[in-house]
Amino acid sequence: MTDAPMVGSMPTSAPSRGGATVFDVHDVSVHYGDFRAVRDVSMQVKQHQITAFIGPSGCGKSTMLRCFNRMNDLIDTARVEGDISYHGVDLYDPAVNPVEVRRRIGMVFQKPNPFPKSIYDNVAYGPKVAGAKGNLDDVVEQALQGAALWDEVKDRLKESGMSLSGGQQQRLCIARAIATDPEVLLMDEPCSALDPIATGRIEDLMVEIKERYTIIIVTHNMQQAARVSDRTAFFTTEVSEESDRRTGLLVEFSDTDKIFTNPADERTENYVTGRFG
What we know:
Layout: E1 12-13, E2 21-32, E3 35-46, E4 50-54, H1 61-67, E5 78-86, E6 89-90, H2 98-104, E7 105-108, H3 119-129, H4 136-146, H5 150-153, H6 166-178, E8 184-188, H7 196-209, E9 214-218, H8 222-228, E10 231-239, E11 246-255, H9 256-261, H10 266-272
Parallel strand pairs: 1-11, 3-11, 4-9, 4-10, 7-8, 8-9
Antiparallel strand pairs: 2-3, 2-5, 5-6, 10-11
Helix pairs in contact: 3-4, 3-6, 4-6, 6-7
């Protein structure tokens, strides 16, 4: 990867507002062995926007999300077909270092997963491993401020990250992700284990930090997608008559207000109005 920005057709799509294209996805399918988990995904993810993936369980949202930082590489049977480019660079080119991909494209998981280390060491871990130059204290403070957590923990930095509340732990994980100075944050249902107050704080944080990051979020909470995202992708499942296996399928990708008020596909309308799913 250079230091410069690196780096099946979709049934229904609409022109995207926003800035530069960060990810350009064409006809992507993901297989686990001989099972096709998701198929024919095409979309463009724009810079400094929040893109939400919604749809019923098993429709491939998280599988697709993990394609953007090559987390599926860690699964022996996984195979990604099609093209995903990041600022015009083929993300799956053999010359591309997946470790560098994951530095530039950070990930926040469904369940808060702080390391069994101090609050300070949780945030400093990534920059240390990457051989960051400069004052680590400044890096830690900036990351915690960026995750709206500094004021709550600045006098507790030597305490265990496990001592924080669930919502604070998730913000600590966000601070840990942004400490390595990524461009993109992938969030896989980051609020599903949190109470409404903590969820509100995470949502406010996402809206605030999209000025600095491009965010893709998987969520089962349609209200959350409607509140925070600029663009929404709706996935559904196809059931094989032979094997009863479910394959995820991208139905529609458009501006969020259009998805929720005037979707182009009847399947989208049925889902967002609660008629199925």
